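#structure-requests
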Amino acid sequence: MVQQVDADYQFTGVEYVRAMGDGLVTIRNPHLNATLTLDSRDHHNPTRIAEGDAAADPPSQIRFDESWLPAQPGSAAPNGDGSAFTITPNGAGNARIDREYQRTGTSWTPGSVSFSVAVTGTPTRSARLKVTLNAASTGAVQLGSTVVLADVLTAGETEVLFNVPADTLAALQQTQEPVTIAIEVAGAAGAAVDIKSLRATTYRATPRGQARVGTWDGLWATTASTSKSPVATVGETSQRVCSSGSRTLESDSFVPKSFTWISRHLAVDVRIPTGLPNPAWQGSVQLYYHDRPEDTVSQFAGQFDLTGYPAGEWVTAHFTLPEPIFEALQETDRGSTLQISLMADAANGDCFRFDNVRFMGELQWNGATSSGLGDGPFVPVTTAERVLGFETEDAWHVVQGTPASVVESPTNPETNALSLPVSNYTVIESTSFPTSELFTFGPTLKLDVVSPPPVNPGWSGDASMFLKCMGANMSHQEVATNTVPLPQGSGAHVVNFVVPPAGLALLAQDNECQLRLVLNGPTNAGTYVLDNLRFAF
């Protein structure tokens, strides 16, 4: 990239040339208000586009700002410190804020939208919040699952995630058309909704607090007519249930103590089918917990009535866990299961779908504690702590390569690490974090690596770290560290990445940043364990 600096060699945010190595080159002349885009990503059909107006680079991190206002209908206003919006529905209980994002001249595509939501007032059971995306090639589509506001009021401030449907994401990746993202409140007369920390990723994400049984990449056991469905709110598939009457689904056995984060509130996404014979009764969902070694009978956790929510859409069913079940999640180290019981009629030409079991509301650490440490385990509070420590499953995702998993750290007791299989070219990327959360930063970024036995003694491979940040002016800036050899031989090692001056300048500003780690190793190099990224001087 070519960017402007001031007399003190600080970036001004003005960008002249962007080329990220994927064949797309954008050249801007802000003085002429002109943009030239050279796109050779399809080398059989390269294109050249000249525009009279400089194209604004859409952000990888969507933020709340005044461009979301005014609300139509209803009203919305920034809160006192400007970190959030308070949405107040109109007399009918409805409100909507939205914003269009231009994508001309970029490869940016939204894969998920997330934010924190809190509710005040007295919302009814029909009061709900929904996020939609609208584009010319896709029309208006629902993102993720509708959130019931009364359940948020019960659970407390909740971080909510709305993934773009997989088919919609694939369609958008073939275009550069603008997209409009809308946050809608319906049926919420007498309530107000606070939303903050709005952000987006370019991939379908996994919510923090998701249970180990949370994605239906494998079917839950049932005697009902069932199959996998590619229509999912997280992961690749959901579970389709088509028969009528009472149907029970049971998860694979799990160890409750394996849940890193828990709360007293459990949720599951349910897609209500169209074509139900009696719209006045759309059925209900019950949740049970079964501690198999201790109990011969499943413990009832609650019921969620589906009547009154739109057919053909996802809705989040919420359950407040009774105290015995919540205690079992903290203490049980034996096999347990969750059971979902659906009572509903069969739909004509459509089926119920289930996905995304997760904890909601305020999450608490459920990791192992040490009897020798009175203070208990390290609890990552900020996003930066989760990223640098590889502490949670939502902190990093695999861009290219085999899926990674969070494991207990082999070098730092009472913390987690990331177990990453490496074969040839492997890329992982962190979630974005604000630089304000960094307690310190310096010119060296150290990484603890536990490496597998060598498979190619002549070449161990190499690694590079990239820092990508976005400032208040929504411009992207990315810098690369040095390339270092991957550690050779079993055991713990420390890898040192050198942060260039341009990277230090980004970290010194009020930016949202991401880290990307590229590992280039031998075929089937083995599993590396990554831990404890930290800055040093």
